[in-house]
């Protein structure tokens, strides 16, 4: 079996395992039902983007017998719900991908609809789905904010693949003994067409949405390439899984994506306490750079995953089923291990001795109980991209 075919086979098996765990509409079977919590989410610091800057879309859960969700043009937001116009009803198209519906309306038509409030009705926030893409393989940026790189001891931004189904804005994420579960809030992007070139990127309508990137830092530390952390090896194992990719309820398509993205802020609270706050203007690799590098390196690079090697994309394209995760700011739980630990690891005589040091370090971190624990509630939010609420639960025992 050739190396490239082996990589694709490993990736396919991994994706299939995620797909088995994921239920329709992006809900995780491992995560179970949406997280228990208040009837209405906390909207502190959350607003709709002004209509002169962007159009905001959402998808609505419909009857189980329906062909797919309704795609909405959102006009206002309050604790009681969103006021929105049902674009699916107008177009007759109900699809899992919101862009399939959005593409039926140009910007001028959407502006005209927004001036017709009599067409709108109110929908409860609890009925809104996540707006992540349908696929399982995504492009992700690591340490793409300088302050996050500083706190974790990594110099420079890099890319890696993330293999996870998108879940919704109310979800649960599982942890277990030995797992060092950490949070990250990010801005994600997806596109209305396949990107095979930067010309496609420039022409595409760009949809921005809030997303989370849950990580098992224990798995990450065990699998890092310690001599070349920015290779991205180890990150796919630590960040992939059925409940690791929650997405917010709003897909925001800006009129000027560069100017709009410069105004976006993202934040994380755990049990009501602030942990992260970042401005997307601080990103090291901007969105076109991430896309360009992904296309340029297609077929030339692979990353470690489940004992094998996988490509970021299987061909030189980013499909509509994939998202781009642009990185997180500082304030995560993980910190660069102390100098003594790093020295002991790097001078250990062989891999077995290295792993022994790493396991002692991880046991000490677990004993501190500073990572997410069952019962914690994580809230991600953005000034214009909505919110995500995640409850941490205990993973079911193996075989149950």
What does this protein structure show overall?
The structure is a single chain. Helices cover 26% and strands 26% of the residues. It is built from 12 helices and 21 strands. It has helices spanning 3-21, 87-91, 98-102, 107-114, 146-152, 198-203, 217-223, 235-239, 257-261, 287-297, 339-346, 351-368, and strands spanning 22-23, 27-28, 54-60, 70-78, 81-86, 121-123, 137-142, 158-163, 170-175, 181-182, 185-191, 206-212, 215-216, 251-254, 265-270, 273-279, 303-305, 308-310, 324-325, 377-382, 386-394. The strands form 6 sheets. The protein has a 5-stranded antiparallel beta sheet. The chain has a 5-stranded mixed beta sheet with strand order 8-7-19-11-12. It has a 5-stranded mixed beta sheet with strand order 9-21-20-15-16, with no helix packed on it. Strand 20 (377-382) and strand 21 form a beta hairpin. The longest helix has 19 residues, at 3-21. The radius of gyration is 21 Å and the shape is globular.
């Amino acid at each position: 079996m050739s190396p490239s075919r082996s990589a694709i086979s490993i990736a396919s098996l991994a994706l299939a395992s995620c797909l088995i765990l994921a239920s329709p509409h992006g809900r995780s079977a491992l995560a179970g039902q949406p997280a228990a919590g208040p009837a209405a989410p906390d909207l502190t610091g959350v607003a709709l983007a002004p209509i002169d800057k962007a159009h905001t879309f959402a998808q609505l859960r419909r009857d189980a017998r329906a062909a797919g969700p309704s795609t909405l043009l959102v006009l206002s937001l309050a604790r009681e719900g969103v006021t929105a116009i049902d674009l699916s009803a107008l177009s007759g198209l109900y699809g899992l991908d919101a862009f399939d519906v959005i593409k039926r309306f140009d910007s001028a038509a959407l502006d005209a609809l927004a001036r017709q409030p009599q067409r709108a009705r109110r929908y409860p926030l609890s009925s809104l789905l996540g707006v992540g893409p349908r696929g399982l393989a995504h492009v992700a940026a690591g340490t793409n904010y300088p302050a996050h790189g500083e706190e974790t001891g990594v110099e420079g931004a890099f890319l890696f693949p993330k293999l996870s189904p998108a879940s919704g804005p109310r979800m649960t994420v599982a942890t277990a003994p030995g797992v060092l579960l950490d949070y990250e809030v990010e801005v994600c992007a997806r596109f209305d067409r396949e990107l095979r070139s930067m010309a496609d990127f420039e022409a595409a309508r760009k949809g921005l949405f809030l997303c989370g990137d849950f990580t098992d830092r224990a798995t990450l530390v065990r699998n890092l390439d310690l001599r070349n952390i920015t290779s991205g090896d180890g990150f796919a194992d630590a960040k992939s899984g059925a409940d690791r990719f929650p997405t917010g309820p709003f897909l925001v398509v800006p009129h000027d994506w560069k100017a709009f993205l410069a105004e976006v802020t993202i934040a994380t609270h755990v049990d009501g306490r602030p942990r992260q706050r970042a401005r997307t203007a601080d990103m090291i690799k901007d969105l076109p750079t991430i896309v360009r590098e992904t296309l340029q390196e297609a077929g030339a690079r692979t990353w470690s995953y489940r004992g094998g090697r996988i490509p970021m994309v299987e061909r030189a394209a980013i499909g509509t089923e994939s998202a781009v995760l642009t990185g997180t700011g500082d304030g995560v739980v993980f910190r660069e291990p102390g100098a003594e630990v790093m020295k002991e690891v790097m001078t250990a005589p062989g891999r077995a001795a290295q792993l022994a040091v790493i396991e002692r370090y991880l046991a000490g971190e677990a004993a501190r109980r500073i990572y997410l624990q069952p019962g914690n509630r994580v809230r991600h939010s953005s000034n214009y991209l909505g919110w995500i609420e995640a409850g941490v639960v205990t993973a079911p025992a193996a075989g149950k």
